[in-house]
Known about the structure:
Blueprint: H1 7-19, H2 22-29, H3 33-47, E1 52-54, E2 59-61, H4 63-94, E3 96-101, H5 103-108, H6 110-120, E4 125-130, H7 133-141, E5 147-151, E6 159-174, E7 185-186, E8 195-198, H8 203-213, E9 227-228, H9 231-239, E10 244-248, E11 260-266, E12 271-279, H10 286-301, E13 308-310
Family: Belongs to the LysR transcriptional regulatory family.
Domain HTH lysR-type: 5-62
GO molecular function: DNA binding; DNA-binding transcription factor activity
Amino acid sequence: MSSIIGIRHFKAFLEVARCGSFTRAARQLHLTQSALTATIKQLEQDVGLTLFDRTTRSVVLSAEGERLMPVATRLVSDFNTALDDLRARAELQQGRVSLAGSPSVVMRLLPVALAQFRALYPSIQIDIRDESAGSLEQRVLGNDVDFAIAGNHSQQPELEYSPILRDRYGLVVPSDHALAQARYLDWQQLPADDLLLLSEDTGIRAQLTRFSLNEQIPINLGRVQIEVSNPAGMAALISQGLGITLLPALAADTRSFADLHFIPLAAPLLEREICIITRKGRALNPAAAALLATVRSCLRNMSLPEWVSTV
């Protein structure tokens, strides 16, 4: 004779044992009391044992019920875990991830992580946005992307910023520049007349502006004659001898700057903080969470530029 017992019987058994009352357990399980009573009766008839001692005032486990308790707990827990795993796998097989990153992040940090993620989850669709820091924050706020990796541009109260890297500022010059042989430079040693900067909508320029307003650096940003919207364009101008620039080490470690020279700046030592940016109160879907975990894992094992450190 085949058994009619299923996981619902063990869930009912555990809830009655927890509540000590058929009435309260039925309410928790969203069942009628008669339906719950019938379910427990089916379980007792199938095993041939009385699992509860019933009085007019209470319902308590019998000796046989006490023996069943740990087994039923494990069965229900294993069942719930199995279902959760299956649902997560199903989403990772058909999911989609949208992320945004600053140019240096997209070029320097993401390729290795994406290669590993694609090997694990080849069916997941990935959408990558390469934009300025201010735009990245708005993408996260508008739920256009699941998360972003960039500097903290404006400390939006609705966003969560989780630091992952510290990125030291330095001077980028042509390899034949008079300062190219310097191991370090102080900010006071910067040339005043041939400085190029990224445009004001970028996170790097926004941070340099804050440094200047706080009198942390002795630079008049209003005197800059040439501004560029992305680091690759900046590298091309420097290569043509049009000037030099200030960048964090990671931004200066991309292919565009391969023939240029980075000199770390001290006195003061200033850094950019690169963060995982998410919207507060919004949980990542399983595919996005898996990609973010892959990014974090890769960072722990990645060979980073000398002046970049993990947090």
